[in-house]
User: Fold this.
Amino acid sequence: MINKTKNPILSFFVKVFSFILILAISDIILGNILSRLFFMQTDGAYFRTTYSIQNTSQEILIFGSSRATYHYNPQIIEKAFNSSCYNVGKNASTILYQYAILKSVLKRYTPKSIILDLNIGEFEYLESDYEKLSSLLPYYYTNPELKDVINLRSKFEKYKVLSNVYLYNSTLYSILRENEFLNGNKKEDINGFLPLSIKYNYPIDTLNIKPKQHIDSTKLHFFENFIKDCKKRGISLYLVISPYYRIIIGQDKSVSIINEFSQRYNIPFFNLSQESTFYDNNLYKDPLHLNVNGAEIFTKRICDLIIYNK
Amino acid sequence: MLFNSIHFLFFFIIVTVLFFAVNHKYRWGLLLASSCYFYMIFVPIYIVILGFTIVVDYFAGIFIENSNGKRRKEFLIFSLVANIGTLAFFKYFNFLNDNLTYLLSSIGLNNLIPDLNIILPIGLSFHTFQAMSYTIEVYRGNHKAERHFGIYALYVMFYPQLVAGPIERPQNLLHQFHEQHQFDFDRVVSGLRLMLWGLFQKLVIADRLAIYVNTIYNNQEHHNGNTLIVATLFFAFQIYCDFAGYSNIAIGAAKVMGFNLMTNFNRPYFSKSIHEFWKRWHISLSKWFQDYLYISLGGNRVSVPRWYFNLFFVFLISGLWHGANWTYIIWGAINGIYLIFALILKKPKAYVENLFLKVLPKWCIIGFKILFTFVLSCFSWIFFRANTVNDAFLIVKKVFSFSGSIYYNDFSIIFYSVLSIMFLIIYEIKKEYFQNKFQFTNHKYFIIRNGAYAILILLILLLGVFDGGEFIYFQF
Assistant:
């Protein structure tokens, strides 16, 4: 029938329409298969994100980047406060991701306390921080509260997510590796905490803070919303900068901002980035991350600080 | 505007639909206006530079055609000086100045000339060379000067090949702007198919490999020999897919509207010698250098030492064309040396090959030659990719130690990289050796044909890197 159409442009559009139909059907079928497999993961970063967004029910939650994931042992916190605890930290995440997770958590329940681990240079503008929000794409339709955050990736994101397959972009390896039928029920984390066993064997280095820092107003806005939402729901919020195996030279704008917000909203802020107790290479895996020994000492120290502050 | 952006998708659809909707006599205007828009998305002000060279070369072409003898040559020289001068000023000023500073400081003097605080106009080397080919061809009498200013401007600015080629010739492209192009379904499909494969090369292969390559090459001091070998292998595929991907999108986009651009890549990693490699890699640039520099220097119709010098010099300039950095110059020099050695060793090589042919099957010899050529090109890519000459030499030193375990912070990066290279190898083997077999995208059944396109698109959506950014060759 198509070949009988005389007008070549009309014939072209008929064929294009047929192709789009084939593409759309394939996209729906493959997208659904991927969705099923994605949410069948039993371990790994995506599993932990899914758990953080859809399943957490613990009284204490720890938010932050890889430095939260590797630094806070929930078992120590559970013992210290006699409360359940989960570490929702995620590698290479920023306040943009953390606020998105908070929104999902608050939609379901209100935790008693939240520890938000922040970094030196936390609010600096970095384009790649927006790209990293791709880790939230699989939840675009399952958790609509995340849409606004995911759409920050680009002005065309809302069109890209029309594809069911795009939602699972770059997740194939994780789907194959961390799936129940391939991986069994192996767990590498302890309530979201990932212990690092390696010891760092180099002397302490220095980090010179850039004199000109471009602060990202969106990140700042998200940070303020994080604080306000916690306040509104009566959650005890603690801001922390965990230790670095680095001597930091200069004044970081982000640290000044955290200080200012901590005073404005009357929230405890523990800046342990330069605490001399942690100037010990035996406690680190690399200059940014404590190993399991360092994490144990640090978690206990944070528990003491919170108890003392109460 | 980047070919791998949603912005371009909308732009391409609108321009193509309008192109077929408007009358032929207005099409040049439409294409010129859209090409200006396409270029101005990068840095708007740089269109002035492009405008300057267009005006100079347009009038130079007419004056060359209308003059005789010495005057003719003077107009050509004027045009070449304007083009090369613009290129030299924007691309090489800081490089030359930095080298001058280094030289003066070595004898205890200060260089008082400050560096220019400018960004290199995007694709400057490409459109400058295309413009130069026009005045040279008019001078040689191979092409008539274009009288229609708009069409000449379009020849330089035609958006599909404006920023990264293929570097076209007036004989191939200019007349196509005068011809009326009818909507041709098969040609449109063929163009879209090329664009789709180009997009796959860029998003699924090049940008995926770039993640590992950039991690390793930008911190080469922390990595061992085997890791650097893997990163170099990945870079060989990255640069190929980045540039061939761009060329395919460019050729495809032009083809949809009925324009034929020259082939720029012909599966170069199946080359059996370096000589063949340069006939398959960046063909439009190799041809440019061959026609306008190598032959002008005398080509191979000179004494043997002079012939070798010509080859070496052309590749040195080719290296410099790629970028204002010693790494590119050394890369060019290495390739020049390869070619000279290939010529010197031609007879012994043929003798050894014949000996091996007596004991080994032919496919084995061919396989070895392909592998050897690939290894040679990979070695030269080290200099092309390294951030500095010092880095390049350190990498070479480490590579030849063949030591250490391969670094990966996240194994998924290696997984996706290897997967993407496998896609490429399967596709290229099919194209090279099974041209008329496994015709999925040319299958007689509509459902198989379109199913193959759909799978390609879904693979891009599933495995593509959508935050990868610019094409490597934009910087040239």
